[in-house]
Amino acid sequence: MSNTTSTGWRFSRAAKGSIAVAALLVIGIATGDVAAAVQHTENDAPASATPAPSAPANEHEGHGEAEAPTENEPTAPTTDSPSEEDAPSGEHGEHEGEAPSTEAVAEATAQALAAGIMPAGVTASFAYAQRNWTPTAYDTCPASLHEQYSVVGDDNKLYPTWHPPVVINPATGAECSFGHEHGDNPADSDIATWVSEFYTKAADGYATGIPFGYVSEALVDFSAAQADVAVRHEDNVGHKIIVANDVAQIQAAPRAPLTTTDSAGAAVPLTCDYLIKIHQGSHSADATTNNAHELLYAVKCTDGTEVISNTMTRFGDPNEFVRSCAGTQVVDTSGSVLPNGIGGERRIPDRKCIEDFVLLPTTQTTKYSDPWALYEVWESANEISAVDGTVLAKFDPWFGVRNPSRYFWKGNGTNGADGIGFTVQASHEVGPSGGGVNAGPWKSLLGGGVLLQQDPASPFDGSERDYYLDATTVNNTASSTWFATPYGEDAVAEPFTGSVRQWVSATDNSAQPPLERRQFGMTTDYGSDHGVHAPN
Predict the structure, then answer these.
(1) What is the per-residue DSSP string for 28-49?
(2) Is the Cβ–Cβ distance between 381 and 317 less than 8 Å?
(3) Hey, what's the torsion of the CAs at 73, 78, 79, 83, to 10 degrees?
(4) Cβ atoms of residues 252 and 518 within 8 Å
(5) Which run of H or of E encompasses 217?
(6) Residue 430 and residue 356: Cα distance in Å, rounded?
(7) Other Cβ atoms closer than 10 A to 171
(8) What element of type H or E holds 287?
(9) I need a labelling partner for 365 at 20 to 30 A (CA). Which of 1, 27, 145, 407 fits?
(10) What's the distance, CA 17 to chain centroid?
């Protein structure tokens, strides 16, 4: 199972002129060895001063007036104490209920055509036209360079795609940074070509790749054809890619690797290749209320199990989340009109986690400010189901963030509304008991001023991420090609307005024993030395 693919427009044009410089000198991010499970130890914790923070007991229980930050309004770099004017505000695009602007789409289409970024007959998607990245004062790459990392969907629309966090700007010949990252390079996946060609197409020499915002675009059409279905658009920086090749499938109990048979009938290890794209914003208030986030989940296994699914997955229900530092405690929020999920949850830190586990009494000598209390884990629950209710495929990956840049703060928003606090600023805060930080990343910041959330000097930028894989269950006796709603429901054999194409192999592995949920990437930092900062 070995394929490679280009990762977007920039690479497809790499042989032409100065663009080759950027293509050859980009800094990609590769995954480590994901064939074996990574155990959670204190050494896997985010970098901190001695003593090290304690890790969560198990994988289920890890541990100013602020609004959601914007990626579109630059703030001046500073290490001084932030004022209200300096504080990021106004997240532009992680919410439901906003229809695309036809004027903005038309303008973006005209500009992209004029710049040679897409062929004739293609229009800009909402993700390209109105949710694309623009630089902050900390970033050195221009927006025009970011726009060139795009792919053409099979719907003839232009979408943003993956790019390295740092590239060579062909206009200057100098290295520049986008200030955010999108995770693993999809070209490193053994199933990259198979997946990218399912949703994008090579058009007029343009390469295939992973489209960002593809399901959100379909949801616009689906919403227009249905009653009481909200549209949902997410920002650019939150799209994150995960590549995991040749992952052994491990039976949970008794613990043992599973096998399958090859073409000669011999027993061979059962392994799977994964290519996943999740939108996970840990910089804004969005996930504290909204449960639906775009998930591309693709897997190909040596026993013939195959899935390519692109949906708005729901991590639990809207208007609530589970407190990251307190196991099963649910925090109620409000404002979302998205549908309930079929399971899963979002574990997110809030102000209580800061006050109970970070800002400690000065008399405390045996307990230390604990970054693991803020460990954010989104647990998904997914089904691709036919119109008659038959479940064709089930899968439930989890996604962790070890250094989120924000936490929920009830009543801290405008006029007493719910808001967020910025994790890095706990370094200079005083807790209810009169104490403050005594360890962890915060203590190392005490010698300077209060950092803004967006400052690249902050150790909290959402770039330290991990993930958990479990079983992919398939039971499909019909065709492999299905068309489902953007939520993966009511799948049929023919497309309909707002449908999204899904691939489920005509196989049955439902008799497979329960698998061990395995954790990967606990030492991965996608932002190290790349100028990455919140929002990311």
Answers:
(1) -------SSPPP--GGGSPP-P
(2) no
(3) -60
(4) no
(5) helix 214-225
(6) 12
(7) 13
(8) helix 286-289
(9) 407
(10) 33
Q: How many residues does this entry show for the chain?
A: 536
Say whether pLDDT at 353 is over 70: yes
DSSP 8-class letter at 466: E
Structure tokens at 217: 């675009």
| Domain spans in the chain, listed from the N-terminal domain onward | 102-520
Asked whether the beta carbons of 466 and 524 are under 8 A apart, the reply is yes
- The percentage of residues in the chain with a pLDDT greater than 90, rounded to a whole number, is 73
Q: DSSP of 133-145, one letter per residue?
A: ----TT--S-HHH
* Residue 311 β-bridge partners: 295
Sheet holding 345-348, edge to edge: 330-332, 320-323, 345-348, 376-379, 398-401, 465-469, 518-520
> Where does residue 485 rank: exposed (0-12), middle (13-18), buried (19+ CB within 10 A)?
buried
**DSSP letters spanning 312-381:** EEE-S-SSEEEETTSTT-EEE-----PPP-SS-EEEE-BHHHHHHHTSB-TT--S----GGGG-EEEE--
Q: Is 307 left (phi over 0), alpha (psi -120 to 50) or beta?
A: beta
Identity of the residue numbered 454 = Q
Q: pLDDT tens across 82-137, in order?
A: 333 333 333 334 544 455 566 777 787 788 777 777 778 899 999 999 999 999 99
63 and 56 Cβ atoms separated by less than 8 Å: yes
> In terms of Cα–Cα distance, which of 143, 184, 142 is closest to 163?
184
User: How much is the mean pLDDT over the chain?
Assistant: 84
Q: Express each pLDDT in 417-463 by its tens digit.
A: 999 999 999 999 999 989 999 998 999 999 899 999 999 999 999 99
Give residue-wise pLDDT tens across range 289-341.
Answer: 999 999 999 999 999 999 999 999 999 999 999 999 998 999 999 999 999 99
In 3D space, the residue among 348, 344, 347 whose CA is nearest the CA of residue 395 turns out to be 344
Q: What is the pLDDT of residue 394?
A: 99
Residue tagged 């030395």 (tokens): 529
Short-list 325, 333, 236, 324, CA closest to 288? 333
Q: Which residues contact 411 (CB under 8 A, 6 or more apart)?
A: 417, 418, 419
Q: Are 441 and 371 in contact (CB under 8 A)?
A: yes
| Residue 475 and residue 508 in contact, taking contact as beta carbons nearer than 8 Å | yes
HSE-up of residue 133 (Cα within 13 Å, Cβ side): 34
